Automatic annotation (TrEMBL):
Organism lineage string: Bacteria, Bacillati, Bacillota, Bacilli, Bacillales
Organism superkingdom: Bacteria
Keywords (A to Z) from UniProt: Membrane, Transmembrane, Transmembrane helix
Bilayer-crossing regions: 115-136, 143-163, 197-219
One Pfam family per UniProt: Zn_peptidase_2
Coiled coil ranges: none
Protein name, per record: Zn-dependent protease
């Protein structure tokens, strides 16, 4: 049982990171037949969806791509911004998918944005209570408080999953409908998006397992 738990919380995230990097590196070398850079793909999809006020900028760092709903900016890492690859097309479309969610007031995205500052606060504070509760068995109530605080962060992780999967679904719909990729390129783009989604699945699985482990400790002490 211990080794299964160890494998889940340690090996699963490592595998997910390996998978996304290897898949991205593979298809970043496959030039898209449209010849459009990630920046051009993002701009095309944004304009087609009436999001002319959303800017597309270059972001430093490897796979630092993201959408900021506060500033209305789609930021693409340098390779995706400048190069015309299947991987760059998929990633750019995914981030624009978040912008479309924002425009349409997608419920899970809105809930995640509202929960984010609370989750950041409770996740950091939770370990103070948890560590004290674990060290001093007489302070089991502090462990309980820590578990409740951690649960907020776990809810945030769970809510992130439909947000990311929905953005990827929107991305595929857009690049297919607009003719950005050909039929034979669709499986490649899906592989890139699926590999990226795995990192969120792995993070959520680890968070849920850790929460369950602490709950069992708390219950057994009582």
């Amino acid at each position: 049982m211990f080794w299964l738990y160890f494998g889940m919380i340690i090996l699963l995230p490592i595998y997910a990171q390996f998978k996304v990097k290897s898949t991205y590196n593979k298809y970043s070398k496959v030039r898209s037949t449209s010849g459009m850079t990630g920046a051009q793909v993002a701009r095309l999809i944004l304009d087609q969806n009436g999001l002319h006020d959303v800017k597309v900028v270059e972001s430093k760092g490897f796979l630092s791509d993201h959408y900021n709903p506060m500033t209305k900016i789609v930021a693409l890492s340098s390779s995706n911004y400048h190069e015309a690859s299947v991987a760059g097309t998929a990633v750019a479309a995914h981030e624009v998918g978040h912008a479309i969610q924002d425009k349409e007031d997608y419920s899970f995205l809105r809930f995640r944005h509202r929960l984010a500052p609370v989750a950041n606060l409770t996740s950091n504070a939770s370990w103070v209570f948890i560590m004290i509760g674990l060290i001093f068995s007489s302070m089991n109530s502090l462990l309980g408080i820590g578990i409740l605080l951690m649960a907020v962060g776990v809810v945030f992780q769970v809510v992130t999953l439909p947000v990311e999967f929905n953005a990827s679904s929107r991305a595929m719909d857009q690049i297919v409908e607009l003719g950005v990729i050909r039929n034979d390129e669709e499986p490649y783009a899906k592989k890139v998006l699926s590999a990226a989604a795995m990192t969120y699945v792995a993070a959520t699985a680890v968070a849920v397992l850790e929460l369950l482990r602490l709950v069992l400790i708390f219950v057994n002490r009582d």
